[in-house]
């Protein structure tokens, strides 16, 4: 199932009545939508072109053409793979290896098709030029922010990753214009993370969110919402494919930063590597 279709199904009951009618029409025949005009969709749903545009923007698309393009791309690939596989009792280890590989590859592919290059470029530029970067995330998301923190430290960026909710708010309060706060939450509904990013925005910092795709609160708070696939469900999956999807976006952001300011960041990355290697040799004989 395409992530966009999945998100529409998840959000259907909470949509305003007119937007719900649009979603219902799309869900009835999603493969037909890329061939429709905005006027035809408005007519079929008993709404207006302006309402269709508002509906698309509520799901973080630029408008109906952007929605059609991304939906078509997803639908063209959704039949190429099997569904995400859950944990099964007594599964042979060979099957587990195959299932985890399939889940991770699908998560990365689904996420890549959801990425908005314009938003990514904006996020990369903000991170490159930020005077200070705050990273917020709790539980599994804190692992993702710690990964980004370790990357950014290696290239000399002033940044800190916070998993404690009080420290998130405390640090966010001291941010100002020229700083960047980035919050990670797969659900996009983690109250502590939402509060921290909102506080950072009020303080004048630029804000970036990284969540699963959908109309969630954290994305709504941020200046630049970035999304991963939202197809991994069920408590037994243990946030595995979702974590890989989040790290996939982090790697793209970091590599984008390195490429955008190559002459500044590469020497710092190489120097930090050599310093760590020298330290290991001196202290532990290279072990």
Strand and helix map with partners:
Layout: H1 3-11, H2 17-28, H3 38-45, H4 49-58, H5 64-78, H6 93-114, H7 117-129, E1 133-136, H8 140-154, E2 159-162, H9 165-173, E3 180-184, H10 191-202, E4 206-212, H11 217-221, E5 224-228, H12 240-260, H13 262-284
Helix pairs in contact: 2-3, 3-4, 6-12, 7-12, 8-12, 9-10, 12-13
Question: Any overview of this molecule?
Answer:
Pfam families: HTH_6, SIS. Helix 10 (191-202) links the parallel strand 3 and strand 4 (206-212). A five-stranded parallel sheet has the order 2-1-3-4-5, with helices on both faces. Helix content is 61%, strand content 9%. It is globular, with a radius of gyration of 21 Å. The longest helix has 23 residues, at 262-284. The chain is α/β, with parallel strands linked by helices.
């Amino acid at each position: 199932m395409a992530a966009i279709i999945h998100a529409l199904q998840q959000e259907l009951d909470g949509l305003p009545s007119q937007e719900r009618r649009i979603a219902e029409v799309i869900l009835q025949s999603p493969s037909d939508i890329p061939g429709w005009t905005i006027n035809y969709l408005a007519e079929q749903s008993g709404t207006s072109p302006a309402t269709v545009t508002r509906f698309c923007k509520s799901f973080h698309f630029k408008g109906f053409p952007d929605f059609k393009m991304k939906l078509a791309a997803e639908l063209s690939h959704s039949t190429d793979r099997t569904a995400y596989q859950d944990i099964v009792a007594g599964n042979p280890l060979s099957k587990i290896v195959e299932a985890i590989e399939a889940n991770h590859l699908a998560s990365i592919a689904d996420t890549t098709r959801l990425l908005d290059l314009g938003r990514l470029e904006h996020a990369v530029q903000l991170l490159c030029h930020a005077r200070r970067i705050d990273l917020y995330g709790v539980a599994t998301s804190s692992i993702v922010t710690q990964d980004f923190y370790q990357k950014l430290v290696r290239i000399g960026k002033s940044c800190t990753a916070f998993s404690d909710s009080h420290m998130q708010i405390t640090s966010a309060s001291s941010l100002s214009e020229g700083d960047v706060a980035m919050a990670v939450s797969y659900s996009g509904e983690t109250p502590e993370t939402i509060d921290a990013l909102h506080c950072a925005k009020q303080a004048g910092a630029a804000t970036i969110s990284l969540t699963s795709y959908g109309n969630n609160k954290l994305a709504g708070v941020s200046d630049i919402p970035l999304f991963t696939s939202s197809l991994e469900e069920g408590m037994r999956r243990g946030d595995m494919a979702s974590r890989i999807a989040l790290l996939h976006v982090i790697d793209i952001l970091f590599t984008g930063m390195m490429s955008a300011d190559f002459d500044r960041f590469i020497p710092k990355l190489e120097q930090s590597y050599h310093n760590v290697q020298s330290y290991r040799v001196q202290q532990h004989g290279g072990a």
